[in-house]
Design brief:
alpha+beta; four-stranded antiparallel β-sheet; 14 strands; about 15% strand; disordered C terminus
Length: about 575
């Protein structure tokens, strides 16, 4: 019988997934968590519920999982790449994926809890409430040492119930047993000195995470509050009718894969799910999905994708999850929730409560507003999607705008994950100093399967442009630029470099379809909506005409009288 994804069972309450920082402080549950990870990683790699079996669903080794049928490409050629990246199914497919992992994790924990002799009821309750923890990289920019540094951790075991014992730390890496044909390394590594090498570079990992910290926080805030429909929110494929100005959940997710993995497993889609940090990362991605759902309760997967089987995740003995499955929309049916939802009274306005929580966690000087809904001008459809929902904290008789760089590039242009790094001023001479340079303004990352021709979904997206955004507002403000001076300054000072995850630098001209354009987005006050509805919008193309191929961008330039150079 194949495994059916139900989420954790055998508990009377819907328990929250905990922040890993919080979980570590709970010696009982952390002890169960570590031992459950050890159990999963020790299982035979042929077991579909082993660490390797579950991790392989994400891409390689491209084998059937639990009797699930293959994915068919346009020519009906079968494949077992179950990839759901760059599509509107990205959030829901990964929700089922994390729930499968969580179900296996908690099952191991319950078995371990039954072996304790003293206070067995307490251990059983802790196991029943154990959920897959998350790492909130937008607030805790560095994971705790237990995730990245400590070779051993101290826990209570059934053999040592009253005294802590030191055990190997399963959060550091996964050691293959045996090493699969697709790997050159014997275990997973973060920022190895060369691709897929066993050597690790903790220094590079920390530097990459800290260098992007402020952008990650702001991107998370803007994604939750400024992506207004499912298409904008869910994935990196270029918006068809949405005119987004904030990064999607998938784009932020891509950037974290790049920062965490470097040229290690987390940096490439093929083997990312074998690194233990993958599950901390993706549980947080699902948490952000839950927050966005609550803020935008009417939004969901487009009708065109509702009846697609989310292979290979069985929800009954004979059927698979689909976006219509109620458990994917109401996550409590999968028996988990998140701390942000705990304690909110059912009679309270859940949406308002979560908006406030999000703004307090990730906001800087801004607050959300829904008043853009009142825009009724002839250009209201486009304006609503571009209209921001942030209120700057300065005098209400002042106007303010965001300056945003939009990047579009072909995802599979280089056949491996890569990043476009944006600098203000000359990049450092040494490539090793690029990502820690004060001149670095932001990074756009592509998270790629290195064998796209074997993956039907990847083949479908070979010619699709991926979209991302870098907010330049702080740069403009720090330089004290007037609106009239922004274009001249940015044209003279912005520079960009392209780097593959193996460290190789390539000329930007190798990205034949690269588009970069800057747009000035007016910010609206609640009591000034009508006055700002017809505000002047400015945009300019950094690559001198490439953006003009995009009819939607051309429409923005035409409709709002923007600069097109």
């Amino acid at each position: 019988m194949h495994p059916i994804v139900t989420g954790p069972r055998l508990q009377t309450n819907v328990a929250p997934r905990r922040d890993i920082v919080d979980l570590i402080q709970d010696r009982v549950q952390f002890s169960l968590y570590i031992q459950a990870l050890q159990t999963l990683t020790a299982r035979s790699q042929d077991d579909p519920l082993s660490w390797f079996g579950i991790g392989g669903i994400h891409a390689l080794p491209e084998v059937p999982w639990a009797d699930a049928p293959p994915v068919l490409d346009a020519l009906k050629k079968p494949s077992y790449f179950y990839c759901a990246h760059s599509t509107v199914l990205f959030p829901v497919w990964h929700r089922a994926y994390v729930s499968l992992f969580e179900q296996a994790l908690q099952g191991c924990a319950r078995e371990i809890a039954a072996r304790y002799q003293n206070n067995r009821d307490a251990w059983t309750r802790a196991a029943n409430d154990l959920r897959s923890p998350y790492w909130d990289w937008a607030t805790n920019h560095l994971p705790p040492p237990e995730v990245t540094e400590l070779k051993t951790v101290e826990i209570f075991t059934p053999e040592s119930e009253d005294a802590l014992v030191s055990v190997p730390n399963p959060l550091l890496s996964y050691r293959y047993h045996p090493k699969p044909d697709f790997e050159v390394a014997t275990e997973t590594a973060r920022h190895p000195m060369k691709p897929r090498d066993d050597a690790k570079s903790l220094k590079a990992l920390k530097e990459d995470l800290l260098a992007g910290a402020l952008n990650i926080r702001k991107d998370t805030h803007d994604m939750l509050l400024r992506t207004k429909n499912w298409e904008q929110f869910s994935n990196t494929s270029t918006s068809k009718e949405s005119y987004a100005v904030a990064n999607s959940l998938e784009q932020i997710h891509n950037g974290m894969h790049d920062r965490i993995g470097g040229c290690g497993q987390m940096g490439a889609k093929d083997a990312a799910a074998y690194d233990p940090i993958f599950w901390l990362h993706h549980t947080n991605v699902d948490r952000l999905f839950s927050l966005w759902q609550t803020i935008h309760p009417q939004e969901w997967v487009p009708e065109s994708h509702l009846d697609i089987d989310l292979l290979p995740f069985w929800n009954t003995p004979t059927s698979f999850f689909r976006a219509t499955s109620s458990a994917l929309r109401d996550w409590t049916e999968l028996n988990f929730t998140y701390p942000e939802f705990v304690g909110i009274h059912p009679k309270d306005d859940m949406r308002s409560a979560i908006v406030k929580i999000v703004d307090e966690m990730y906001g800087e000087e801004t607050h959300p507003s829904d008043n853009e809904k009142s825009l009724t001008s002839a250009k209201s459809t486009l304006t609503r999607s571009l209209a921001p929902i942030r209120i700057p904290l300065f005098a209400k008789d002042q106007s303010h705008s965001d300056w945003i760089l939009r990047i579009r590039t072909r995802k599979y242009a280089l056949r491996m994950s890569y990043s476009i790094l944006i600098f203000c001023g000359a990049p450092p001479t040494s490539v090793a100093n690029w990502r820690t340079s004060p001149a670095l303004v932001g990074t756009h990352s592509e998270f790629v399967n290195s064998q796209p021709e074997r993956c039907p979904n990847c083949v479908d997206h070979l010619n699709v442009l991926s979209e991302g955004f870098i907010n330049l507002t702080k740069l403009v403000e720090q330089k004290g630029l007037n609106d009239a001076d922004v274009e001249k300054y940015l044209r003279a000072n912005l520079a960009w470099r392209v780097q593959k995850i193996d460290g190789v630098v390539i000329p930007a001209s190798a990205l034949k379809d690269l588009e970069m354009a800057v747009v000035k987005v007016p910010l609206l006050y609640p009591n000034m909506i009508e006055a700002r509805a017809n505000a002047e919008w400015n945009a300019f193309d950094l690559l001198n005409g490439l953006g003009s191929k995009d009819s939607r961008w051309a429409r923005i330039l035409k409709d709002f009288g923007c600069l097109s150079l």
